[in-house]
Amino acid sequence: MDNVTASTIVITGASDGIGAAASRILRAALPDARLVLVGRNPVKTAAIAAETDATYHVADYSRLDEVRSLAAELRQLGRIDVLANNAGSMFDGPIRTADGFELTWQVNQLAPYLLTNLLLPTLLESRASVVATSSMASAFLARFNPDDPETQRGFSPARAYGNSKLGNVLFTRELHARYHHRGLNTVAFHPGVIATNFGTETSSVIHYGYQTAIARMFHPAPDGGMNLAYFIAGTPGIHWQSGRYYNDRRRPGIQKRAGRDPELATRVFEDTAHALGVTWE
């Protein structure tokens, strides 16, 4: 970003948790930035927007028509210097959405993929950064089968979540491979194990951890927000390298072989485009 203080920054999943925390941090650090927040809950999103002097949009990622409407609204901004694909959660399942996809895969992978695709001309013109909130679950919980990316077979909330977060890493790598030479920068990161409302929509053991005394050992939401804000405000090539995945200490993160496989990244990218019926420049 040539002038980070006056940049247009879009943050999804901004109504709560690390998205809300990052919004507060960025407003304090970059008072001239144009913050644009996206959330599923209109009341919470409006409250954070008012607190941070931001504009906001409401979209439910379980409905891809709302993602398409969101993209149309965001294109009216004219330029986008940073798109932070931060929205995501864990769900019981498998649950089939109205769009015909498994819910976890749709919310965590398909929706940000579609939003980025629909905003690509604006992102390229702006020489933007695309920041993905992934997770160490991409290495430790994922058991990814490219023939079953939605985890329909052998479903568990944790495995489906890990696979979707691996999808974020692969998407980051492939976007870099295709568009970095045109000025686009991409990065994925693990925010840390953060005490938020994450996991409330699943009955898995992870839900238990987040909703009991175990959560007292987790980092507070502002810690994860600091990491998100760091990658949003950081300068590619100086603070982080495009196409990489980082851990919560902002160092290159551990990945399984699948997360480093360029052929798998290309396959998942193209299979997802086909499933959504979209094309890329």
Automatic annotation (TrEMBL):
Start and end residues of each Ketoreductase domain: 7-197
GO molecular function: oxidoreductase activity
UniProt xrefs under InterPro entries: KR_dom, NAD(P)-bd_dom_sf, SDR_fam
Keywords: Oxidoreductase
Tree of life domain: Bacteria
A Pfam family recorded for this sequence: adh_short
Signal peptide (from-to): none
Stated name of the protein: Short-chain dehydrogenase
